[in-house]
Amino acid sequence: MRRILGIDPGSVVTGYGVIDSDGVRDFHVANGSIKVLGDNLPEKLGYILKSITDVIEQWQPTEVAIESVFVSKNVMSALKLGQARGAAICAAVQRDLPVAEYAPKAIKQAAVGYGSADKSQMQEMIRLLLSLEKLPKPDAADGLAIAICHAHTSGLAAQLSGAAGGAASTRTTGGKRRAKRWMSIP
User: Fold this and answer.
1) Which are the catalytic amino acids?
2) What DSSP line would sit under 103-145, residue for residue?
């Protein structure tokens, strides 16, 4: 059983979700939203680093997955998101945890089955997938969706590798991790 921490980075709110997964079934462990405190960007980034470090220490994940940077409104928003991601990634790397990143559409596709799902659809599907009694907050639901995406995407790559006798590879293209399988025909 793998313990996966999914992180939805943000300079105002950073969401996280922790699941245990065997690659087929996922079990909710924890989730939350970190309201980022600080008067300036360096203080905010330090707060994200410390908060994610605390989450890692409390829940002891073996792997971390994070949403990749995207430009939605403007370049400055993407820059701030990238800096928040960097702080969260540093927290994982300091603990020698492997980090994978996924594009927002890939995360939505894995969790909801639809790459353009809205926040309420994500919340409801995460509640159903993990048998939660109530809807998680939007950022926490995103963190859980990222963990689920990693559990099933990385699990598929490992299964393909085993099925092809090690003749499979994974690669990152445009922020999406894809598995490719091939075998030689005699």
Assistant:
1) 8, 67, 139
2) -HHHHHHHHHS-TT--HHHHHHHHHHHTT-SSPPPHHHHHHHH
At 171-186, the pLDDT tens digits run 333 344 433 322 222 2
The pLDDT tens digits of the residues spanning 106-155 come to 999 998 888 888 899 999 999 999 999 999 999 999 999 999 999 998 75
> Could you give the CA distance from residue 94 to residue 53 in angstroms, rounded to a whole number?
9
Region class of 22: left (phi > 0), else alpha (psi between -120 and 50), else beta: alpha
Whether this model's pTM surpasses 0.85 = no
The CA-to-CA distance between both ends of the chain, in Å, stands at 37
In total, the chain counts a number of residues equal to: 186
Instruction: Give the span between the Cα atoms of 18 and 144, in whole angstroms.
Output: 6
